[in-house]
Specification:
Elements: H1 3-14, H2 23-26, H3 62-70, H4 73-82, E1 101-103, H5 117-125, E2 132-134, H6 145-157, E3 159-160, E4 167-168, H7 182-190, E5 197-207, E6 213-223, E7 239-249, E8 257-263, E9 272-276, E10 284-285, E11 317-330, H8 334-337, H9 343-346, E12 359-371, E13 381-387, E14 393-399, E15 405-410, E16 412-416, E17 421-431, E18 437-442, E19 450-451, H10 461-467
Antiparallel strand pairs: 1-2, 3-4, 5-6, 5-18, 5-19, 6-7, 7-8, 8-9, 9-10, 11-12, 12-13, 13-14, 14-15, 15-17, 16-17, 17-18
């Protein structure tokens, strides 16, 4: 058994239940661990480099940031919709890199040690076209200093108060930088830093085996209340972010509005969601939006809890921390983010255009989620691979009720180096049974994330109903 996995299991067995770490362990942050808990050192073979701090390249200077802050939401939205998307892209800081090697169906056995079962299944499913170009590993990911300070506080204070969904004692940073159990790693993904508030396009597609593409375009306003410095934990009132979505395509759904107040403890209080259908003037409370209910406009290709790779309540699964592995994962996906590529350039029959993808060897936390004996979910088991630097889930192997591999999820992420946050360029969800796949988080032909202030009133159901036509 891999030595890192053994060490991870030993740490799990020795860990106190539902508690943060002691001061001696917390003191490792910023020392042999990065300020957010990753191993600072590279690996022994030199194929994973040492973390040297966040990449900082100012594309938007302080004057421009002040300009954003001075604009009202309506003016920001007008600029954001009119400006061509290529004008707001992140140039690839590693554009000079070339693949060290490429993994394909013929040579994958030589690299099996660093591949997940799901990745191996994709090679077998598409032996003539699926390949993984592997580049030098780069570790640009970091966060603002005020978040590092919060993480250091969270390390000793955060805990799961009686069950996996009852997080307390954390604010403004990942709650468990030195995780002791699987649920803590998943909480780190849910509460990773993605910016504070602003607007983005979230374009979703379903691609059939023959290459037919169906697109859904969603415009989103988000406010991550957990990361607002002026708020404390009690101020959240169990709601850690707002999202307001307006659907622009396909035509039959255009004009629909979805509002979500995302709750932290979803066992005590399920997420609050409202829906306004096209042509209607009234916003209505939505039925249960979570777990394995079908995702909106996904044609059955994802569950609700697969948005953002994983979201929502943890209570239907047992979460086992299986330590760390070194895996070839999608990373530094600046080419997939490039506005020069149309959606048709990216979406190909069977899988995305792998010539635009970039894979690197990184350390990932491995979390095994298994449905509890008296719970139900269409996915009996899932294996999550979580990047140690960003706490973003970058790969998932998904198993059906017969415990057979069914779906494989990826998150092709990149570091937004002016805002010091990690974003997704595309999140494919491959179905190994029917040959179709779904993608989320694209915005190449539209606009990426733009940070700007959004008032809380913007997310009040009555106000959304009143302003629906102007959204």
């Amino acid at each position: 058994m891999d030595r890192l996995i053994i060490l991870g299991l030993l740490a799990l067995w020795a860990a106190p239940l539902l508690a943060g770490v002691g001061p001696e362990q917390a003191a490792r942050l910023g020392q042999d661990l990065t300020p957010r808990g990753a191993e600072r050192a590279g690996n022994a073979r030199g194929t994973i480099p040492r973390w040297e701090g966040a990449l900082r390249r100012e594309l938007r200077d302080q004057e421009q940031q002040r300009w954003w802050q001075g604009l009202g939401l309506r003016k920001v939205m007008a600029w954001w919709r009119e400006e061509p998307p290529e004008a707001r892209r992140y140039p690839d800081p590693f554009s000079a890199d070339r693949p060290v090697f490429t993994i394909n169906a013929d040579n994958m056995d030589a690299y099996r040690e660093h591949l997940s079962p799901g990745q191996q299944a994709l090679f077998r499913a598409h032996p003539d076209s699926y390949r993984m170009p592997v580049y030098p590993s780069r570790r640009p990911v970091g966060a603002p200093d005020w978040i590092y300070a919060a993480v250091a506080r969270n390390a000793q204070r955060a805990r799961l108060d009686g069950h996996d969904d009852a997080l307390v004692g954390a604010m403004h940073g990942v709650p468990f930088p030195i995780p002791q159990q699987g649920a803590e790693v998943i909480w780190n993904h849910k509460l990773r830093f993605r910016g504070q508030q602003g607007t983005r396009w979230n374009v979703q597609s379903v691609v059939d085996p023959g290459g037919e593409i169906r697109i859904m375009k969603v415009e989103e306003n988000l406010k991550f209340r957990y990361y607002l410095p002026e708020l404390g934990f009690d101020d959240l009132d169990n709601v850690y972010f707002y999202v307001l979505q307006k659907i622009h395509a396909p035509p039959r759904m255009a004009g629909a509005v979805v509002l979500v107040h995302e709750t932290m403890d979803q066992v005590r209080e399920p997420r609050k969601a409202w829906v306004m259908k096209p042509g209607e003037s009234r916003i209505n409370r939505a039925a249960t939006v979570g777990y394995d209910n079908p995702g909106t406009a996904s044609d059955g290709q994802r569950t609700n809890d697969q948005a953002d790779v994983f979201n929502g309540a943890l209570d239907r699964y047992d979460w086992r921390l299986a330590g760390k592995r070194e895996i070839y994962v999608p990373y530094n996906a600046y080419r997939l983010h490039d506005g020069a590529h149309r959606y048709a350039d990216i979406l190909r029959p069977g899988h995305i255009n792998q010539d635009l993808a970039r894979y690197e060897l990184h350390r990932v936390w491995v979390v095994e989620a298994t449905v509890k004996p008296r719970a139900s979910h269409m996915y009996k088991r899932r294996t999550f691979y979580v990047d140690e630097d960003s706490w973003h889930i970058v790969l998932v192997d998904v198993y059906d009720a017969q415990d057979e591999l069914w779906r494989v999820q990826e998150a092709h992420t990149f570091f937004a180096y002016d805002q010091l946050s990690v974003q997704s360029a595309i999140e494919p969800n491959y179905d190994l049974k029917n040959g179709r796949y779904l993608t989320q988080a694209m915005n190449n032909e539209d606009a990426p994330w733009v940070e700007h202030p959004v008032a809380d009133a913007h997310y009040a159901p009555r106000n959304v109903q009143r302003r629906a036509g102007a959204l």
